[in-house]
Amino acid sequence: MSALQNILSRLVETPLIFDGAMGTMIYDKGVFIQTCYDELCLTSPGLVREIHEQYAKAGAEVLETNSFGANRIKLRPYGLAEKVAEINRAAVKLARQAAGPDLYVAGSVGPCTQGGQVIAGGEIAEVEAAFREQVKALAGEGVDLVILETFSDLKELQLAARIAREEGVPVLASFAVDEEGETAAGTPAEKLAAALEADPHVDAIGLNCGTGPAGMYEALLKILPVVSKPVVVMPNAGMPRTVGGRTLYLANPEYFTEYAKKFIELGVRGIGGCCGSTPEHIATAARAVRGLSGVRKHIEVVSRRPAPAQQNIIPTAEKSRLAAKMFSGRKVTSVEILPPRASDFSNMLAKVRRCHEAGIDAINIPDGPRASARVSPMITALVILKEVGIEPVVHYCCRDRNLIGMQSDLLGGYAVGLTNYLIITGDPPKLGNCPEATGVFDVDAIGLTKVVSNLNAGWDIGGSPVDPPTGILIGVGANPCAVDLEREIDRYFQKIEAGAEFAITQPVFDAEALLRFLDRVERYAKRIPVLAGVWPLLSYRNAEFMNNEVPGVVVPQEILRRMAGCGSGDESRHAGIEIARTICAEIHDRVAGFQVSAPLNNVEIALAVLGKSEG
What is d(CA 136, CA 125) in angstroms, rounded to the nearest whole number? Predict the structure, then answer.
């Protein structure tokens, strides 16, 4: 084994990026399918090493050996049964050469039976001997992990896991499911996963092959509730299609990556690819996954109470005009307007004045929405406050600045009159127009909420007094339609404990989902006002974009169908306004107010939703 941190503890600490398909890459390099791909470790070592190097360059942190079928039973038809040890040892050496000292090497072990077959009683001894011979060679050459992959028979998988554990190597037991969430042997994914959860020889549980990202996602929803061991997912790049006599997998890297991010949101600890995936799939997914806040280890922030002698703590309702109105029980309204892309504020200020004249309480200013660069939201907010007088709500995200810079910004912003903030973790850089930028994420929204709450209590990040303390109104985000709602609610409660004073939701297109969310969170001992995010749709294409591309937003099918049925741009725009008005009416009595986005910075549409314009 290598000198790296134990791979199991690393999986628990932060998710790992596994490599993609080996067979697909070998085939694409012109090797006939009738060839024994495992033997290439001996006959074409340069080709195998090159593929490993491509995956390492793409960002894979775990390289799998080219030994999936390198057991005595599978090698026998090729006349290679006596080369098991030689092939497997060569496979590890080639992967290790590409991995160097910084990457893990996993020994790939496939089933001895064909998909859907079950080991017969008389075959068990032979299969056991075959696994023992292969795993002994892999372990002897120092793999960091044994991956038992693409199994369908539970008995065979558990037999292989027991043998691998006897060699003293961590074991990832992975099985293949179809689009119905069943193995080729007909076993439901959740039943097989529950058995592996109870198996003492299995350290981690995997899903690989059999289906593409969408099918794998559905299977994950079934198995995650029944397991506590780390889960690794390696889907195919879509379902295979025969084109011109060749079997192709048509899921592009971007589609593959969108699901990789969803897998991480669900709690998966490892992401890789199976049939059809390439270094391009892994590179795109690796950049996106590493940009997610949840993958990074955040600086721990300790919440502090006000010093006993501190007399200048500002009550929440006295922090701003927005706070005073919201905490008096009156409905508040805000309109979200993007900062300009250049230094000319005139057009934006005209829109802000229109909102002020219409009686809007605040202007929400996004911070690098979808990881795009615009004029600083704090500078924009200061210009709005100075030139128009309406209160801004500054979105402040953790992506772009380290903790020192964030505290400096917040102290400076408060000193010049910026008191209302929405603390958010921030979209990963991969979503924006500069995908190679690095996400900082020293803390997430929970950690930064603690920082701001400490400033309000008179303490900075180093534990030194801040006198006078700040009086920042702390807002946080909430997502009633989160993929993992239990995790979202848990984080929502953590934000409240950290010091959050109000919340703004992601755009709500499903009123019932928001009401269910409020039913859950209002049972909590500590309650904060919730402003509903509202987005008036402009067109069917806009609805599709919101549903597919904006993290955390779900547009119900009935709304998509309604927008699809609209004709002209005017008809679509009016339909979008009417949908937004209906949603507002359905949730009016349960929320503290509304934050309405101005699509394409068209404030008349936002004002129309609030009944202050014809749109």
Answer: 16
470-507 per-position pLDDT tens digit: 999 999 999 998 877 888 899 999 999 999 999 999 99
Residues 386-420 have pLDDT tens digits of 999 999 999 999 988 899 999 999 999 999 999 99
Q: How far apart are CA 250 and CA 255, in angstroms?
A: 10
Taking each helix axis from N to C terminus, what angle separates 154-166 and 124-140, rounded to the nearest 10 degrees?
Answer: 40
DSSP 271: E
- How many alpha carbons fall within 13 Å on the CB side of residue 564? 9
The two three-digit tokens of residue 282, written as one number: 């892994």
Q: Is the peptide bond before 468 cis (omega within 30 degrees of 0)?
A: yes
Contact call for residues 34 and 20 (beta carbons, < 8 A): no
- Rounded CA separation 348/383 (Å): 10
Between CA 586 and CA 277 the distance in angstroms is: 45
Maximum pairwise Cα distance, the chain: 85
Q: What is the mean pLDDT of residues 378-387?
A: 97
Cα(128)–Cα(150) distance, integer angstroms: 17
Tell how strand 270-271 and strand 246-249 pair up.
unpaired
Query: What are the start-end ranges of the E strands in 346-400?
Result: 362-365, 391-397
H or E segment at 355? helix 346-357
